[in-house]
Design brief:
By secondary structure, the chain is α+β, with helices and mostly antiparallel strands. The chain is built from eleven helices and nine strands. It has three domains: 87 residues; 73 residues, Helix Hairpins; 150 residues, Histidine kinase-like ATPase, C-terminal domain (Heat Shock Protein 90, 2-Layer Sandwich), CATH 3.30.565. Helix 2 packs antiparallel against helix 5. The structure holds adenosine-5'-diphosphate (ADP).
Length: 365
């Protein structure tokens, strides 16, 4: 006795064409033995009837009828009935008729078919579970997006309304309110660009353009362009290491620039005045390790595993205050992984944080 699972899936229905065709092919292939057996019985019966015909036509007819009956019985029991069961299982699957498991008792070969169908359906089940999970992730993502968009929009709306209701003439607050409204629009802008990046990464539209480039000038420019932000925050920013060397790395320069900008910006954002941020590189045989290290606020161990998730923030208010979107590290992770590398983080509260990853010096096969 074998059991055939009947699925829960609307999703299955769209793959059913191939599935049903394969099941039938498999079934037909396995049935050859039963068909062969039925043909042998009727042939033996036919031969015996021919031999007996001269002596007793009645007995010959009885033998012939018996052999035909026996082969039909074999076909019915071992071919037609199991096939019908398999068909009913597949049809129930197709009509989304039930969630229970159907049964099919049969010969060894039919059991093998049942096993094959069981394993096919099990893999469909795994696919369904995965799709349900993706659906949940998608709806959570949409919820987060609308929340993130709503916050700066409502805040700007409130500021403009207050200005219109008279605050525009109050010299003590008018500039401050306008500055806040401007900050909100900037936040909306960076949120939208990061959302576009995330969606392009997920849809596979973000194509990387790999090439060799000189690492040190790349890091020097990146650090130099961040100096103004560092000064505004009163945090020191420097590139450490022997900058006189020539190191050719292989990757998408623009996207790696985005990674470094993000890590340095975070290091500056989550540091206090007079803290230090250092960008380091260490040349190793066929790769280079890049690090962004800060002496900032640090991250508690329980958050370390989650900071690369979309919209995850350790301290929501602080992140928003410094213009964070919660998407930066998710994008960093995707880009670094697309370079066949892994982003790592080490941190201690009150001591600082270090993000690091490797870059290849040779092309990736
Ligand atoms: P955000 O836009 O909020 O900065 P990220 O995805 O870049 O989002 O980072 C996720 C969270 O990780 C941040 O909200 C912050 O809490 C934490 N984080 C990232 N980098 C650092 C750092 N260098 N020091 C301390 N905390 C950090």
């Amino acid at each position: 006795m074998h059991t055939l699972p009947i699925g829960e899936g609307f999703f299955i229905l769209n793959c059913e064409e191939k599935f049903i065709r394969n099941s039938y092919l498999l079934t037909m292939y396995s049935l050859k033995f039963q068909l062969f057996f039925a043909v042998i019985i009727s042939s033996i019966g036919g031969c015996a009837a021919m031999l007996l015909f001269d002596r007793s036509p009645v007995l010959a007819s009885a033998v012939l009828l018996f052999s035909i009956g026996a082969s039909f019985t074999v076909l019915y029991l071992f071919v037609y009935r199991p096939l019908k069961k398999v068909q009913s299982v597949i049809t129930a699957q197709k009509d989304k008729a039930s969630l229970h498991r159907a049964t099919a008792d049969s010969s060894q070969e039919m059991q093998e078919i049942s096993d094959s169908i069981n394993s096919m359906l099990d893999s469909f089940r795994a696919d369904i579970a995965q799709m349900k999970k993706l659906e949940q992730v998608r709806s959570e993502f949409l919820g987060n997006v609308s929340h993130e968009l709503r916050t700066p929009i409502f805040s700007t709306q409130g500021l403009i309304e207050t200005l219109l209701h008279g605050a525009v003439d109050d010299k003590k607050v008018n500039r401050d309110f306008l500055q806040k409204a401007l900050n909100n629009t900037e936040r909306l802008n960076s949120l939208l660009s990061e959302l576009i990046d995330i969606s392009r990464i997920q849809s596979g539209e973000m194509k990387l353009r790999f090439r060799f480039f000189d690492l040190v000038p790349f890091l020097e420019t990146t650090v130099a362009e961040m100096q103004t932000t560092a000064e505004q925050r009163n945090v020191s920013l420097a590139l450490a290491g022997n900058t006189g060397v020539h190191i050719e790395v292989y990757g998408d320069k623009e996207r790696l620039r985005q990674v470094m900008d993000n890590l340095i910006e975070n290091a500056l954002k989550y540091s206090e005045p007079n803290d230090k941020v250092v960008v380091k590189f260490s040349d190793q045989k066929d790769k280079v390790e890049l690090c962004v290290e800060d002496t900032g606020i640090g991250i508690a161990p329980q958050h370390l595993g989650r900071i690369f998730e979309r919209f995850y923030r350790v301290d929501k208010d602080r992140s928003r205050d410094v213009g964070g979107t919660g998407l930066g590290l998710a994008i960093v992770k995707h880009i670094v992984e697309a370079h066949h590398s892994t982003i790592r983080v080490e941190s201690e509260i009150g001591v600082g944080t270090k993000f690091s990853f490797f870059m290849m010096k040779t092309s990736i096969g």
